[in-house]
Amino acid sequence: MSDDMSGFSKRSKFDSEDYYLNSEGFIVFTEAYHLKRGYCCKSGCKHCPYGYDKSTGMLKKKN
């Protein structure tokens, strides 16, 4: 059994269009990934296609 308690190794594989690594090494999910997932997580994601505004806590229609 693995000592990895994060659960990361158990997650499904991502397509190359689903994310990229930023300059700090963090995973950044793309708009394509969010659309595949099918809902807004309301975390204020950089590429949110649903128009979530973290400062107001509201979904706004994206043009």
Layout of strands and helices, then pairs:
Elements: E1 19-21, E2 27-29, H1 31-37, E3 52-53, E4 58-59
Antiparallel strand pairs: 1-2, 3-4
What's the total count of β strands?
4
Strand order of the largest sheet: 1-2
Radius of gyration (CA) equals 14 Å
Question: Helix content range of the residues, please?
Answer: 10-25%
Order of helical and strand elements: EEHEE
Q: Label the overall shape.
A: globular
Mean pLDDT: 83
Classify the oligomer: single chain
Q: What's the story with the biggest beta sheet?
A: 2 strands, antiparallel
Question: What can you see in these coordinates?
Answer:
It contains 1 helix and 4 strands, in the order E-E-H-E-E. The chain starts with 18 loop residues before the first strand and ends with a strand. The relative contact order is 0.14. It is globular. The mean pLDDT is 83. Strand 3 (52-53) and strand 4 form a beta hairpin. The strands form 2 sheets. A two-stranded antiparallel sheet has the order 1-2. It is 11% helix and 16% strand.
Quick structural gist:
This protein has 63 residues and is of the alpha+beta class. Helices cover 11% and strands 16% of the residues. A hairpin with a 5-residue loop joins strand 1 and strand 2.
List keywords for this structure.
63 residues; alpha+beta; two-stranded antiparallel sheet; two-stranded antiparallel ribbon; 1 helix; 11% helix
